Amino acid sequence: MQLLLTVYYLVQLAADQVPLMEDLEQIFLRSWRESHLTEIRQYQQAPPQPFPPAPSAAAPVTSAQLPWLASLAASSCNDSVHVIECAYSLAEGLSEMFRLLVEGKLAKTNYVVIICACRSAAIDSCIAVTGKYQARILSESLLTPAEYQKEVNYELVTGKVDSLGAFFSTLCPEGDIDILLDKFHQENQGHISSSLTASSVTKAASLDVSGTPVCTSYHLEPHSIRPFQLAVAQKLLSHVCSIADSSTQNLDLGSFEKVDFLICIPPSEVTYQQTLFHVWHSGVLLELGLEKEHMTKQRVEQYVLKLDAEAQTKFKAFLQNSFQNPHTLFVLIHDHAHWDLVSSAVHNLYSQSDPSVGLVDRLLNCREVKEAPNIVTLHVTSFPYALQTQHTLISPYNEIHWPASCSNGVDLYHENKKYFGLSEFIESTLSGHSLPLLRYDSSFEAMVTALGKRFPRLHSAVIRTFVLVQHYAAALMAVSGLPQMKNYTSVETLEITQNLLNSPKQCPCGHGLMVLLRVPCSPLAAVAYERLAHVRARLALEEHFEIILGSPSSGVTVGKHFVKQLRMWQKIEDVEWRPQTYLELEGLPCILIFSGMDPHGESLPRSLRYCDLRLINSSCLVRTALEQELGLAAYFVSNEVPLEKGARNEALESDAEKLSSTDNEDEELGTEGSTSEKRSPMKRERSRSHDSASSSLSSKASGSALGGESSAQPTALPQGEHARSPQPCGPAEEGRAPGEKQRPRASQGPPSAISRHSPGLTPQPDCSLKTGQRSVQVSVTSSCSQLSSSSGSSSSSVAPAAGTWVLQASQCSLTKACRQPPIVFLPKLVYDMVVSTDSSGLPKAASLLPSPSVMWASSFRPLLSKTMTSTEQSLYYRQWTVPRPSHMDYGNRAEGRMDGFHPRRLLLSGPPQIGKTGAYLQFLSVLSRMLVRLTEVDVYDEEEININLREESDWHYLQLSDPWPDLELFKKLPFDYIIHDPKYEDASLICSHYQSIKSEDRGMSRKPEDLYVRRQTARMRLSKYAAYNTYHHCEQCHQYMGFHPRYQLYESTLHAFAFSYSMLGEEIQLHFIIPKSKEHHFVFSQPGGQLESMRLPLVTDKSHEYIKSPTFTPTTGRHEHGLFNLYHAMDGASHLHVLVVKEYEMAIYKKYWPNHIMLVLPSIFNSAGVGAAHFLIKELSYHNLELERNRQEELGIKPQDIWPFIVISDDSCVMWNVVDVNSAGERSREFSWSERNVSLKHIMQHIEAAPNIMHYALLGLRKWSSKTRASEVREPFSRCHVHNFIILNVDLTQNVQYNQNRFLCDDVDFNLRVHSAGLLLCRFNRFSVMKKQIVVGGHRSFHITSKVSDNSAAVVPAQYICAPDSKHTFLAAPAQLLLEKFLQHHSHLFFPLSLKNHDHPVLSVDCYLNLGSQISVCYVSSRPHSLNISCSDLLFSGLLLYLCDSFVGASFLKKFHFLKGATLCVICQDRSSLRQTVVRLELEDEWQFRLRDEFQTANAREDRPLFFLTGRHI
Predict the structure, then answer these.
(1) Mean of the pLDDT values across residues 382-408?
(2) In contact, 319 and 325? CB cutoff 8 Å
(3) Interatomic CA distance for residues 792 and 478, integer angstroms
(4) Which of 437, 438, 435, 434 is nearest to 768 (CA)?
(5) Cβ of 896: how many Cβ atoms within 10 Å?
(6) Residue-wise pLDDT tens digits, 1034-1061
(7) Nearest-10 Cα torsion for 1061, 1062, 1067, 1072
């Protein structure tokens, strides 16, 4: 079966095509599938077996039938395939073939198939290639680049090519071209140049002030970052961050302070200068702080490394630098990364021949680079295939692909230029386009084929080069006044030379176009250069256009006359200036002979009009090589002007991730397989016949160059017309333009796709109508006047199709340059490969072997698909290609690990010339900014509030230099009831008898949504004593975090801990998660047994090695962002830190903080607020204190010697500061101070060492603000509220509890309870805490939503309460939260008299609830012996009784006086207790109640709503 399919394949090959290995492999796969189809189907239907049966080959064709069937298949091909049958061995058939060859009977035969059908079951066969053309192409493609160069060199040096030159001289009837040239030179010496320059000067031109002509089309583009490049830079950054965030600890971004880089490029002088230019103008060196303002070129050269013989010294310096600067992140950028992937082991064999072979492997893959924790390697390439093998070092997750420009027809990034790459070039060959940009030159190919037969021993590259140079020479002569030479060149070459010479005349300044002539072999390039320079000199055209020989090893050499022109155009005053890159040749009329086996990433200017690739060699039968050559023509086209082609307006691709040069060849919007299969063959057919029609004209036109007969012109015309419309059009279709009719085909989607192509271009159909008609008319006229002597548009059959390619007068060539990409000429063989597609619409070129340094892992592989994204293509190559032994990745998997990926290695791929250099330089900038940002933090920076209301008493703490408060002095200070913490700006004022408040003192309240938006923050650099979140990984705290590579993730054990609490009336069951490394902080009944208590130190301990007070941090929703890493804050000191988490968050916190002790709250508190956590921390701590006193009493230690303090800290405390004061004396007015960052250890040990500390119930710190005034730190201590970071004496506060129900202001409530209990609160004003702004978690994690799931409308605070038994929408939120939020925003509904009435506050008994900033409250405690302010002279405007207990009695309330009309609000757990409270407190004596004044929180009954009753004072 396989043999038959192969014969069919050979039969359908055209005379100028060669068999491809990929095609033969697909035949092999297809025949295997066919022969095993029945077994495959049976296997798929049968139940799966552990081992499938080995498939046995079914034989549909017998050995006797096979030769007969093969001969039958070959019978239709006019002898191009000959079948020989032999009985015994293949040798018999081979000798028969050689006999036929000698006898000349195989003259027309290209392939001989020999079949040996022996008696045994096996059939032997072989295929011999006998066609001279095919044999030559295949044998030449087997040569390595080095062998190819050697062969060509040999032919040039030994004079083998002289016979070719002699043959050319016989072609011209007038004699040798050189004689003609000399004759022409003598006749016209002195005339031509003067007349031509005169004509160009007399042209109408706009002049600038100085009188020199100005061209409006010439402008150098300013350096700017395009949206695409920014998007790619951000993608690169996010990949680097994901490496850092992974648990593998391969990159610690937090430890780097700056970014440095080195760009490695191939040894091309032009690419080197081009990269230096990019680095210089991007400003990246200044942004990274690597260089100062006035840097020299020598400094910039430090950052770009040309991989040549001198590279090693520079690279060693880079490695040394990275070793000496561990806090600098070095990015090693390997640009053009598909070049030189030779293993250094192979280099050792050839080290004498070329020292730069294998350099990439020796430098970039050396052990130092792989192991350095501060080097990230970024490979950048347009052709990543050789780095996507089974052995690659780059993880698929570390690949970044250039994004698509549009998705579903919508532009993703608005850019004023569109990229025009390989897929767009291919698309221009489709029907429906006025002009194909990819072309081949059939007359050139015909001549090469004829000469190939005549000179079989010469390499085809030599023949092709000599023919093409001859064509250029003849064309130059034809244009310069020897019209008879038109017959000795091709139409295509004539078009190129005409436009090259005419373009400077169209522009007042003489701007012209560039012709790129690609000659891969350097010796041949030198021959072409010398020959063309000679012809130019003879024709006296030296000042009309330049010829530049560009090779990787040398720079750009341009004649003085043209350098002067370039300096004038670019307004360069430096006399020494010379162009160093091809981009600087913008507007110079020139032929650039571009040599070197591979382009090395050189960019070409916008004035490039023709890309002549007719000489690219047969090594292009590899995907990388082919795309690399075509990538030279890649181009940015101005987006404002629609392209000449009628249909398409989007540039890159349809799939949101397709990229690289041919991921998206011929991309269409639709991806339906059926339509593409039906339509694409016909579409291709039309386009190819259209091309060949025009090319056949030109081939006949230049047929005379071979001495062949010239066909009559009119015969070509019907063929051209017929090709354009292969099927008859209906009358309805005839009226539509060809361009419009075929546009839906080009989109493979429904007709509506037309509008998606170019939204906003309304006159589109009209455009395509004109274009379509013009192309038909022009081809008719041009075919008639094909070889007439008139110059201009009629000289070319293809060019006039657009009507503008041969330049019109008075238009500078650069005007067109920004709108139209260059025209590309290809060898016919390559052209066919690029434009032919498989059944899925994928160009044939894309399924070639991806790179010469890799090979297919198996012939049994699926085909690449057109719909594959870049990521899918990468995975395909990773599965189906393996590196050859010479490839640097060959030994990668031999290291023993299956996962051989290098963790700090990334790959960026994108189409050629799309702007990857700009993208990675931008990435360096954003990476640097991010590292700086990582060392900074946003902290709240707000002034203390209500400063002007501070109580002016006679008592201040006047001993300004005291390090600790003097107890006796401190006791005499009055308590400052007023809240000064700015986060409580919207909270109710607490009245005391000292203050008189004017209503205007309080600002307008903020809207709830503004609460976080408007809080002021300052960006601070993190000090070495900061607390960190989970993203910080430095060497010192790996062990602290439990992520150290030498340690397994820390094992933890879960311990239950129960204690009874009478107020709750039940036993509280808590759970501790204790890592093994922290078990020494606890006491167990036995090792691994029951948890008994948490160890507490003694008051008398004076050690400076640890912090005595255990720290508790309640947290919710901040497993990633909470600042729980206190290693640096504690300066490495031993401390006990417990995270207090809710049960449902236990697992996620444990995952992120495996080495932290967790206290897990009971599940009933899952929806509770911070009050519950504070309540349980305090109760647990007191219970633990009792346990420790009992335990240590047995050891002879007094109970009062056990340390009773704990720290309760917010999860956003980031840094701590101390104020240093310089005052001349105790009471001196001269007072200066400065603030510095200190460790939390310093602050804690200072406070813990305070004398008489046991007499204080609550200690705290000031909140940091940059606006702090001297008056706020002048007094070292204040007796006031403390927040955020408190040190709590659990012994003294045994009988004062936090309110476990509270969500908001629970710390204010607790402070008031502590003070009223007669206990001391002390704030250390010289210490401050900085709080980081964390926008996730905390109390923001409580969202109040409707219980009715389909109701998505936002719930406003007014809806938080409702009348009992009403049909109000119930809310999914705790009742207490609804109550607090409602009172915060709408308490004026309950206390209308209190609004802005600060002289008559609301009396709040035993609790502080926030009633909003417009209402003041007066807090009183009902406990016996409690400290309350004197209320005898106060008239209250309201009374708030919240869940009052038995201490509140009727007699207690009668002490207070109320305004007439004052309002009362009683809040209880249920309606019955509401009534009981009213009766017990005899409220009806003084207060009037109405039935409609009863409310409840908007909770369902099962959620236990709170009930309120309001009344008016009689």
Answers:
(1) 89
(2) no
(3) 12
(4) 434
(5) 6
(6) 778 878 887 654 445 557 889 998 887 7
(7) -10
